[in-house]
Please model this.
Amino acid sequence: MDNHVLHFAAPPQSTTSSAGGLLAGYGLLVLVIATIFSALDRQILVLLAEPMRQSLGLSDTRLGLVQGVGITLFAGAAAVPLGWLADRYGRRTLLAACVLVWGAATAACGMAQDFTSLFVAAIGLGIGEAGLAPIVYGLIPEIVPERRRVLANGVYTLAAILGSGLGMALSGALVDALDGVRPLLPPILQALESWRLAFLAVALPGPLVALAVLLIRLHPQRAAAHAPSEQAKPAVPAYIRAHGRTMACVFGGSGLMALGIAASANWAPIVASRMFGATTGQVGQGIGVAYLLGTVGGAVLGAAGVRMLRGRAGLATPVRVVTIGAVLAALASLLMPAARSADGLYWLFGAQVAALIAGSVLVPTLLQDMTPAALRSRLIAIGSGVTVGLSALSPLLVGALSDLLRADPEGLMTAMAAVGAAAFALAALVMRMAEKPFVNTVATIHPDLALRGA
Model:
């Protein structure tokens, strides 16, 4: 189905257009809030990893299992069936259910008494978050007009990323503030450790966010245009047969990028605490500020890269920008063992984020353009499954390598840098291989884009 056919629809009346714009803005805002809520729930697990590890007596390997296999691997396994449900049934209802699941799982993390109960709670968190990307990327074209889809994708991506960085900074402040309000809490909560209270606090907004999702208004014509049909069922294997190389390269490269950044995102807070003595609040604020600055810098670099490369790379420009970003991120990983303070580590993490964000703001539009509307959630779910499956290996690889290097006081730093550098280097290679098949796929699905060379 040609998404661009909506350009020829008759323009609505000004009042209706204004109301529709407000409703579309509300829907986009709610999707951003849901994404930030998801990121905050996951970030709090990273930020509180060290006090949680000490309280529950976890090794680095087991901590890696919780952060990697518990969340991301099970999220990858759940992504495809959730994507199928999103294409076949109501996306809003499914997203609201996912919000409730990951909120409840976050609260369960705070009540965990041992590795097993924490691991089970992390599985619930991963399954709940698995539906986010396939559903959101499927909802945006149903909420906003086609002519504003690219802008909406960019706004959503940047707002969600900036919000995630702000969430990390705020979560650090939250942990520091909890002890101050402890006397005001009921006696049963006063006895809990600070890290447990933090999990319960970030789980509280879940029902409100789920209700806001259910109140999103879909445009009837756009929703009908993107609605799946029974005839679409056999198109998934046909699409995979025709464009399997594109999917393997784009999804594989994205997964390796996720593996690389997960090494730093999951372990840099712990390195800052162990090696440099940073407090939980300091780590949250430092990583959060680095994330925010890296996001802004990456957006500027990405826009500049697109302008510089579009004349030579054409349709492959987004892929080329991501490839260059992966190379730069690998260099930042290699420099991490040279950091001699927590601030130095934060700066290098920010450089990694900037390198990745340069291409990431284009990814939603890239995925939408390479997938037919009726199959979009399912195909993006496959990509999400590959991405989270590979990123699930990162915490486990770093944790296991750190345990092997236990005799080295900087073993965790070395393990984090090695896994990150290797993953980013492989991602650059795979994304470079993706250019030609990606161009062919987009040109096949959207010939008009090929004619415009965009």
Remarks:
- The longest helix spans residues 235-276.
- Confidence is low (pLDDT under 50) at residues 1-14, 221-226, 228-234.
- The chain has one domain: 20-227+234-452.
- The radius of gyration is 22 Å.
